[in-house]
Amino acid sequence: MRYNLLRMNRKQRENTSKYLYDISKGIALLSVIGNIIKGKWDIAVIVFGIIATIFFFVWAYILEGGNENE
């Protein structure tokens, strides 16, 4: 039996995109707030946070765009 993990129905895409948007917001928040709490700006954490935030946001945006087909 072959499972196609990339085929999702509309509800699954909506929920997954919401989850990925939340992950994106969480990473952005943690990378900024974490540096403020520490009192120093760790460039590596900020750069990783920005890259990860953009990655998850774009992934969610692409999934959400697939909803127009149904």
Show the helix and strand layout.
Blueprint: H1 10-38, H2 43-65
Helix pairs in contact: 1-2
What do these coordinates show?
With 70 residues, the chain is mostly helical. The protein has one domain (10-69). Helix content is 74%, strand content 0%. It contains two helices and no strands. The chain has helices at residues 10-38, 43-65. The longest helix has 29 residues, at 10-38. The radius of gyration is 16 Å and the shape is elongated. The mean pLDDT is 85.
For the structure shown, list the relevant keywords.
70 residues, mainly alpha
Chain-averaged pLDDT: 85
Structural class: mainly alpha
Fraction of residues in H or I helices: over 70%
- Please give the count of helices: 2
Tally of strands: 0
Tell me the β content: under 5%
Q: How many domain units?
A: 1
* Strand and helix order: HH
Shape descriptor reads elongated
User: Poorly predicted ranges (pLDDT <50, ≥5 residues)?
Assistant: none
> What is the CA-atom radius of gyration, in angstroms?
16 Å
Q: Main β-sheet: number of strands, strand sense, barrel status?
A: none
Question: How far is the N terminus from the C terminus?
Answer: 26 Å
Short structural description:
This protein is an all-alpha fold. Helices cover 74% and strands 0% of the residues.
